[in-house]
Amino acid sequence: MATTTPSAALVPVTPVFINTERLALAGFLAGYSGLTRQAYELDLRQYATWCQQHQIRLFAARRADIECFARDLEAPRPRPGHHHPATMHYRRVL
């Protein structure tokens, strides 16, 4: 049986957002409440995660990048979170 030893090592973390991005996202979300805000939070979290995975700054994305994000959302997923085509249409309209 393997045992693990706790570590106190510090791992440097690079911030996901720069201050201007953080302020812009907070300002956008401030205009919404309830379920609408939660839905937009999820959408923005997914988009921000995708941008980070593809090393794209949030506000440096080009149209082609956003189209790639949309195609990635449409791709069949073998795990929970598969998006229905109507959801994809909703997200493209935004």
Written account of the structure:
By secondary structure, the chain is mainly alpha-helical. The protein has one domain. Helix content is 56%, strand content 0%. The protein contains four helices and no strands. It has helices at residues 19-30, 34-53, 63-74, 85-93. The chain is extended, with a radius of gyration of 17 Å. The chain starts with 18 loop residues before the first helix and ends with a helix.
Quick gist of this model?
This protein is mainly alpha-helical. The chain has helices spanning 19-30, 34-53, 63-74, 85-93.
Can you count the helices?
4
**Gap from first CA to last CA:** 52 Å
Q: List segments where confidence is low: pLDDT < 50 over at least 5 consecutive residues.
A: none
Radius of gyration: 17 Å
Biggest sheet details? none
Number of beta-strand segments: 0
Q: Portion of residues in helices?
A: 55-70%
Number of domains: 1
Give the topology string: H per helix, E per strand.
HHHH
Overall structural class, as computed from helix and strand content, comes to mainly alpha
Outline: extended
The amount of beta strand, in percent, is under 5%
Summarize model confidence as the mean pLDDT: 80
Features:
mainly alpha; 94 residues; extended
Compile the SSE list and pairings.
Elements: H1 19-30, H2 34-53, H3 63-74, H4 85-93
